[in-house]
Amino acid sequence: MAVETERDGHSRFNFVDRNLIRACVHCGMCLSYCPTYKLLGSELDSPRGRIYQMRELQDRKITVDDPNFQLHIDRCLNCRACETACPSGVQYGRLLEATRAVIPPRSETERVLKDLVMNRVFSSSVLLDAMGVGARFYQKSGLQAFARASGLLRRLPANLGTLEGLLPRMQGGVVKARLPELIPARGAARYRVALMTGCVQEQFFSLTNAATARVLAINGCEVVVPRGQVCCGALHTHGGQREAARALARRNIAMFERTGADYYIINAAGCGSTLKEYHHLLEGDRRWGERARQFTERVRDISEFLGSIELNRDLGEIRRRVTYQDACHLAHGQKITAQPRDLLRMIPGIELVEMNESDTCCGSAGIYNVTQFDLSMRLLERKMNHVVATKADMIVAGNPGCLIQVAHGVQQRGLRMEAVHIVDLLDRSYRLATGESSEVR
Ligand code: SF4
Ligand code: SF4
């Protein structure tokens, strides 16, 4: 018999508003858009099937400990392609996150690991910096090249050696450069914006953050980089660690409020989607609910923001054939698809070639390529087939996770192709026009 216990302030059965589940009318329109359904062909691995299982849980016909239920919920990418496809407006992302919040850790090891990674490392900029220094030292000192050439990685337990292959080329030196707290606009300031530098983004893509600040400044923005900002909580929210995510959200809201900025800018799609949903995360919180709502109104993805202002059009020519990968949390989470394409078309010399299924998940999906490695690699395989068919020599995306994943696909296939963040490409073009170095980093 099912035992009802409390977790995340909800009972394991009444974990979400019933109306959110009832919104699904079982029409099946979402099925052919769902990557896991396309791969596995099983109703239980489709949005409709997963919502049906959530309903079963609410009706106490299954329990959160049911291994089959856990399997199908674990396999979901939280890509939200089903939300875009759904004519009934089902808020699948909210349903999934509420469901994951009531699934307990499967073992003591998982509990300890989750606590260590989510509550300690991702909640502490000191620990994140230390981890970043270690990873960059490993890569830049030659240790990584030695480990790969010597075959040492093949002897690591589980699939740690294979996972090491996913480690992207980290930008910057061993000690990462820190952006100043205030970057003045070039010319007259038209906007004051605050830049969210991200946690993983700051460790892996610090130069992309610097490029973002330059592109904003050259477009008339005074850029504030709030000290004390922390991880947005995306990994926590997606993994069901909602209380930890709420603590991070409160800290970020307080830090960004102080900046007096008109807009809060983010260049990582997954984080942007989470920041825009802080009001859901803090719903019912008397002290923070309204502040969260006001915060979310100011959040803009970088391409969304640039697409909404009058731009500096003094851009240098870059003659490349480019294909664009829609990050799930940009296309489906934030419904931003036109602006990045418009920005690409604005750069002289860029030829934009659309790939098939550009808005289907590449298999990165947060830590999906770690937790569901085989499925993730099958999705990457499918993605790379579409990329290759375009004959592009550059893949552009607006999310670090996608860039890491497709760069792995490029490396695996030995392709001569760059995986580049859209803001890096724009920055390169601006710098060509101003005669500054536009070296590829
Ligand atoms: S989630 Fe939407 S599209 Fe999918 S079955 Fe339910 S109502 Fe239909
Ligand atoms: S979030 Fe993505 S993987 Fe999950 S059910 Fe929806 S479409 Fe399928």
Helix content: 40-55%
CATH class of the largest domain: Alpha Beta
Q: What structural class should be given to the helix and strand makeup?
A: alpha/beta
Name the shape in a single word.
Answer: globular
Q: How many β-strand runs?
A: 11
- Taking the alpha carbons of the first and last residues, their distance comes to 58 Å
Mean pLDDT: 90
How many domains? The number is: 4
Largest sheet: number of strands, sense, barrel closure: 5 strands, mixed
Largest sheet: spatial strand order: 3-5-4-6-7
CATH architecture type of the largest domain: 3-Layer(aba) Sandwich
Ligands bound to this protein structure: iron/sulfur cluster
Low confidence ranges: 1-10
Number of helices: 24
Beta percentage is 5-15%
CATH fold-level label of the largest domain: Rossmann fold
Rg of Cα set = 22 Å
What features would you describe in this structure?
- Helix content is 49%, strand content 9%.
- α23 links the parallel β10 and β11.
- The protein has four domains: 6-102, Fumarate Reductase Iron-sulfur Protein, Chain B, domain 2, CATH 1.10.1060.10; 108-164, no CATH class; 182-306, Rossmann fold (3-Layer(aba) Sandwich), CATH 3.40.50; 320-434, 3-Layer(aba) Sandwich (Rossmann fold), CATH 3.40.50.1860.
- With 441 residues, it is of the alpha/beta class.
- 44% of the residues are buried.
- The longest helix has 17 residues, at 373-389.
- It has helices at residues 18-22, 35-40, 47-58, 67-74, 81-85, 92-102, 108-120, 125-140, 143-150, 160-164, 200-204, 206-218, 234-238, 242-257, 269-275, 278-281, 289-298, 302-306, 328-331, 338-346, 368-371, 373-389, 400-413, 422-434; strands at residues 6-7, 10-11, 182-183, 191-196, 221-224, 263-266, 299-301, 320-324, 350-352, 394-397, 418-421.
- The protein is built from 24 helices and eleven strands.
- Strands 3-5-4-6-7 form a five-stranded mixed beta sheet. A four-stranded parallel beta sheet has the order 9-8-10-11, sandwiched between helices.
- One iron/sulfur cluster binds at residues 24-30, 47-48, 51, 82, 85-86, 88, 90.
